[in-house]
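Final report, Chapter 2: Outcomes

The project's central promise was a pipeline that accepts a single protein chain and returns its three-dimensional structure in a standardized token representation, suitable for archiving and comparison. That pipeline is now operational. To close this chapter, we reproduce one record exactly as it appears in the project archive, with the input sequence first and the structure output second.
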Amino acid sequence: MRKVLLTVMMVSSLLAFNACKKDGAQGPAGPAGPTGATGAAGAVGPAGAQGVPGAAGAAGSKILGLTVDPVAADGAVGDYAFNKTTKTLWGPKVAAGWAGTSTSLQGANGTNGTNGTNGTNGTQFLAGAGAPTTQGVTGDFYFDTTSGVFYGPKQADGTWLNTMPLGQAYAAKTYTITRGFENVAELTKVAGQDMIPSYENYNIFSSYTVTANDMIRINQYPVRTVADAGGAAGTGGWGENREMVFESATGSNIFNQVPANAAALGAGVFVVGAKFRYTKNTVNPLAEFTLTQDDIDRLTVNAGASYGYLTYAKALQNTVALGQTLVLATTKKIAVQNSTTNYYATYSARTTWDLNTLVPNFAKYKQDGKVFLKYKYHNAGTVTPGDAGNTAVVHAGINAGWVDLSYYANSYVTPTTAGSGLFTNQNPFGTVNPTTIAGPAVNFPGTGTYFANAVTTFAPNQVATPVVGPVATPTVYADGKFLQNWTITSGTNAPAVATYVGPAMLVADAAMAAGYNTVALANVNPFGPAPAGGASFNTRANYTNYYSFASGTLSATDPAGVAIVPVGETIPVSGNKGGVSAATVGAHKLVTLQVFVIPGDVIKSLKAKGVDTDNPNAISANIKL
């Protein structure tokens, strides 16, 4: 211990001595001290340069999907090929191609399995209209959709264990049907005729230049795009019909004054500012215009001769344009052709219903219950399919409201004529026998009598006449069945009408006048007396110079091309028109029926309560339909 202490003191003295030396040499390094604590991490250095890309790997092999065996051009060395048709695999391909054979990947066919045992038949739920007969097998069930009766299960002997009416299948109910014409068949069809004009010899070169004022009139008077009562498509227009009809007095709105010749212009009612219309403008018949001084000047040139050809002659259509000078024809031809749209036709038809099929379980209602009928006649409506205006109204007369069908629904009487099937005095709409079902006094539209017993106009120019049916379809009013046969005339039968064919004059008959002009023209006849207060219409000297038989500038032929002999300036033309197709007749409605049926148990219960069961209104007030 003493030695250690002395040693330490000596070392300390040496250290102190050396510390006091100046600029002495550095002593040897002392022993390493203990390891210090780890310092904080330094900042991340910059990224190094990208290395050189490695060499591309060798191409892998592929399996080619083919529908045939591979050929030399298919694939690369090492590839495989699969023929999807033969299910074979080829490969791998070598430098020399597809060497070797293919390997089939399709296994051998398996052995046929053995049939299992048949399962047992399950129970079926069958349905049909009417009671079951041979339907189903043992254990099945059946539902009659007509009567609402449920049957089943079926027994081994073919009988049905239970027969159960379901819910309200046999209860008080109301059924409704609408009936019109059925099985409409064409009997006859007679075409009407159309007059088709054509013009030749456009060799009158007028000095009449079409002005802007003329164009206003022309645009109100277009050429027909479809055939109408005035003529065929492509005819008409201001260039064809230009006779001017003036007001009888300013503001009267009665247009019945026509100047006899050019000299009449500028006097009387034919002065500047007078209102006029053009005749036979079927497209825009009420278009009105005002006479100008320019009109008078142009119509009176050449000593008035221009009035005739500028009023009555047909203008070449391509000269009827702004700035053009009218070129007019000197010859007119009329071809009478059978019409495809105007005709008169007759049809056979029938109206039918059967309450036995309309009302499920009808026989039972008749047997111990009650059956009442209410009906609505349909007014005469349009003759287009759908009959938008053909609305139904409740019939009037002595049986307005519900009618007891006791006689009709249960009638098994002898026919009035043996084999005819006709049961006249059971008609639910009326009868000649007041002790059965009394018919309404006046109700069916257009007849003054009841349905199916008189001629009825069911739409304009459409008339149905009841007839006794043939043996194959006899008229029947019995046992809830109804079959009424009809003969129908459709349209107007007017085979020969004297029709004026001259220039564009006021029309020769009242019906055409009313259609093309005004009612005030109904008494106008170009060859007859003058209308009240007007100039005579048969004194116009100019019109016969244009398209008249007398001057030789007019001719007419019938549908066979044979020349027609005129009577004066008229030719006979069939006026058949107004006929409609069988489909349109079949779309028309005649009557809507409401059938009120009450089962026997309800009737019995109501009678016990004192309800008058012959009164349908009393019945309906006590039960819920």
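Archive annotation: DSSP finds eleven helices and 26 strands in the chain.
This record, like all others produced under the grant, will remain available to the consortium after the project formally closes.
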